[in-house]
């Protein structure tokens, strides 16, 4: 049986899907789902976890808590 993953629709543009992105900590420990980004290149919406705070926006300079 194969499992199909469906990602949430982007609430910002309603065209793309939010896909999870992973990263590594300073100690090389994997962090699953550290960020979510819209697949629509024109939207560029993201949600990211940095130092325990949640940021969202469309570019790093515009991100808000």
Q: How does this model look, in words?
A:
It contains no helices and 4 strands. The chain has a 4-stranded antiparallel sheet, with no helix packed on it. It has strands spanning 18-24, 30-38, 46-50, 53-57. The protein has 65 residues and is mainly β. The chain starts with 17 loop residues before the first strand and ends in an 8-residue tail after the last strand. The chain has one domain (1-59). The model has no long low-confidence stretch (mean pLDDT 83).
Can you lay out the helices and strands and say which pair or pack?
Blueprint: E1 18-24, E2 30-38, E3 46-50, E4 53-57
Antiparallel strand pairs: 1-2, 2-3, 3-4
Supply the number of helical segments.
0
Radius of gyration: 13 Å
Overall SS class: mainly beta
Estimate the helix proportion, in percent.
Answer: under 10%
Briefly characterize the structure.
This protein has one domain (1-59). Helix content is 0%, strand content 40%.
